[in-house]
């Protein structure tokens, strides 16, 4: 991927985000773009950074560490499966974690986060499609987990994340997104939260649907950086 191509891709994605906001009567400033850079090399990530992309998402700690060292001023988001033995590094190298799905992991991240760094932003991953093999908390259990993690000291409960069912039916996809928004509204109400919660939903093939349903973080890899190696 050349610098020019990445710049053009980013421009196109941002423009599409703006249009989708306009069509659904939303303020485009509410929708943040997370560039998912897993399996991409540092050069292409630097290209994106140079044209103003500041937020990057990574799924694997080992792979992310070197990139974070090279671009320490960017905001780094962990979006992959969290292994217990890696929580300390995840808690301190990243600014956001979108994939928390247990109280135990949230507690470890809070305990291991260096308080000098400020609070780590945490999102709960929700299994809105209720597929048994999928990570994420069952929709009925989100409130109870949110309540427990919102009192932890070094993390800030910032919202919910979901990966919808793989489906070519837009209705099925949209209903996962809508479900996430409804859960977040109930939680905000029941926990009397002042700030509205973030909704991390929408990837290259469904981000426009996600914006219509209220997404505030779209996580885009392929549309910015092109296809990844198959094994990742
Ligand atoms: C890889 C990944 C993405 C980006 O997917 P694309 O289809 O390439 O946009 C988004 N979210 C998560 C959790 C991912 O693992």
Characteristics:
232 residues; alpha/beta; TIM Barrel; eight-stranded parallel sheet; 9 helices; 41% helix; 17% strand; binds pyridoxal-5'-phosphate
Describe the structure.
It is a single chain. With 232 residues, this protein is an alpha/beta fold. It has a single domain, classed as TIM Barrel, CATH 3.20.20. The protein contains 9 helices and 8 strands. Strand 6 (155-162), helix 7 and strand 7 form a beta-alpha-beta unit. The chain has helices spanning 3-23, 42-50, 61-70, 87-93, 103-112, 142-149, 170-190, 207-212, 222-225, and strands at residues 32-36, 55-58, 75-78, 96-100, 120-126, 155-162, 198-200, 217-220. Helix content is 41%, strand content 17%. An 8-stranded parallel beta sheet has the order 7-6-5-4-3-2-1-8. Helix 4 (87-93) crosses helix 5 (103-112) and helix 6 (142-149) packs across helix 7. The longest helix is centred in the first third of the chain and has 21 residues, at 3-23. The structure holds pyridoxal-5'-phosphate (PLP). Pyridoxal-5'-phosphate (PLP) is lined by residues 36, 38, 59, 79, 163, 203-205, 219-222. Pyridoxal-5'-phosphate binds at residues 36, 38, 59, 79, 163, 203-205, 219-222.
Taking the alpha carbons of the first and last residues, their distance comes to: 18 Å
Fraction of residues in β-strands: 15-25%
Q: What helical percentage do the residues reach?
A: 40-55%
Q: Cα-atom Rg, whole angstroms?
A: 17 Å
Number of strands: 8
What is the assigned CATH homologous superfamily? Answer: Alanine racemase
**Heterogens:** pyridoxal-5'-phosphate
> Which structural class fits the helix and strand makeup?
alpha/beta
